[in-house]
Write a structure and sequence with these properties.
Shape: globular
CATH architecture of the domain at 63-235 and 308-318: 3-Layer(aba) Sandwich
Number of helices: 12
Number of strands: 7
Structural class: alpha/beta
Low-confidence stretches: none
Distance between the termini: 43 Å
CATH superfamily of the domain at 63-235 and 308-318: Vaccinia Virus protein VP39
CATH class of the domain at 63-235 and 308-318: Alpha Beta
Largest sheet: 7 strands, mixed
CATH topology of the domain at 63-235 and 308-318: Rossmann fold
Strand content: 15-25%
Length: 319
């Protein structure tokens, strides 16, 4: 597939995954593989082009969490980051029935780790754990392995969330952040989670949902006997707070763009594209007039995004 075909396959695949009503027939294995190929290719490109300190996810903002992180990592948020993406990762472990000082000897797996920055952050928060990141993008895994891997602490492997390359019962904590909305078969992923978690193991799942995807999630969680769902928290307000702070003209995000060598128009287009990619529409983003004009004349593609209704943190325990 060429670039245009890849983008079309990815966007149409996302729509098919997230807008299908529960129990509605979808495109089958061929469509699923096409979506995975497109997704892997796009995230390969992102892993090649992105720089350290770029955005990893939509992020969240909670002053209490900021204080808790700074108590563990003095100076957090002062160098090379706005801290919003890290706060989302901190939340993933903070609200579990395991203290952050009780990870010694535990195995932590992140499914959908991207270039590994989030899991690297967690390795500094929950010390003593053996952490593994898995991603569908070979390029993301190559970059993470080259820049972040540390013997006996942090490793990265290539793999599919729906076919996890781990033996039964080998994982204590499974982390999945802003990734599962890309999976063609959410039920298959959850059954894989059930398989690889040890008895008493924990899934901490954070993602954005359309109405249809959340309904499908609720149905699937009821069908998987081996997982007991203990929390389902709507964190949309805290996610929107982070996105709006990023959109502010004096934000770290805009300061980072300002340091890049590009003309003002290219910078506006780049800002627009990244804001859309990292949750702008969810937080009420209204493109500036110049972007709307460029969209009308076909220079800038208009991407309204999927109608995401909530951003949630869900926790399940393996029976």
């Amino acid at each position: 597939m060429n670039t245009a075909e890849i983008m079309t396959a990815f966007t149409s695949g996302l729509a098919d995954i997230n807008l299908a009503e529960p129990d509605t027939a979808r495109g089958g294995e061929k469509a699923a593989e096409r979506m995975k190929t497109a997704s892997s290719t796009i995230y390969d490109m992102a892993a090649t082009l992105s720089a350290k300190g770029d955005l990893w996810n939509w992020g969240m903002y909670d002053p209490e969490i900021v204080d808790e992180i700074r108590a563990r990592l003095p100076g957090f948020g002062e160098f090379g980051t706005d801290g919003f993406s890290e706060q989302l990762y901190f939340l993933a472990l903070r609200d579990l029935p395991i203290g952050l000082d009780d990870y010694d000897g535990r195995t932590v797996l992140e499914v959908g780790c991207g270039t590994g920055e989030g899991l690297n952050f967690l390795s500094r928060i929950a010390r003593g754990a053996r952490m593994t990141g898995l991603d569908l993008s070979p390029r993301a895994i190559a970059r993470a392995s080259a820049t972040l891997a540390r013997a006996d602490v942090l490793e990265f492997v290539h793999g599919d969330a729906e076919k996890l390359p781990f033996v039964d019962g080998s994982v204590n904590i499974l982390v999945n952040i802003e990734s599962s909305h890309n999976y063609p078969d959410l039920g298959r992923f959850l059954r894989e989670v059930e398989r690889v978690l040890s008895p008493g193991g924990i899934l901490t799942h954070i993602d954005v949902f359309t109405r249809q995807r959340y309904a499908a999630m609720r149905r699937m969680t009821a069908e998987i006997d081996g997982l007991t769902w203990v929390t389902d928290h709507d964190i949309s307000d805290r996610v929107r707070a982070a996105i709006r702070r990023r959109m502010a003209s004096d934000s770290h995000f805009h300061a980072t763009l300002a340091r890049q060598r590009m003309n003002p128009m290219a910078r506006r287009i780049a800002a627009h594209s990244q804001i859309l990619m990292f949750g702008g529409m969810f937080a009420g983003y209204q493109p500036p007039a110049v972007i709307r004009l460029l969209s009308r004349i076909g220079i800038v593609p208009w991407v309204s995004g999927l109608p995401m209704e909530s951003y949630r943190h869900q926790v399940a325990v393996r029976r």
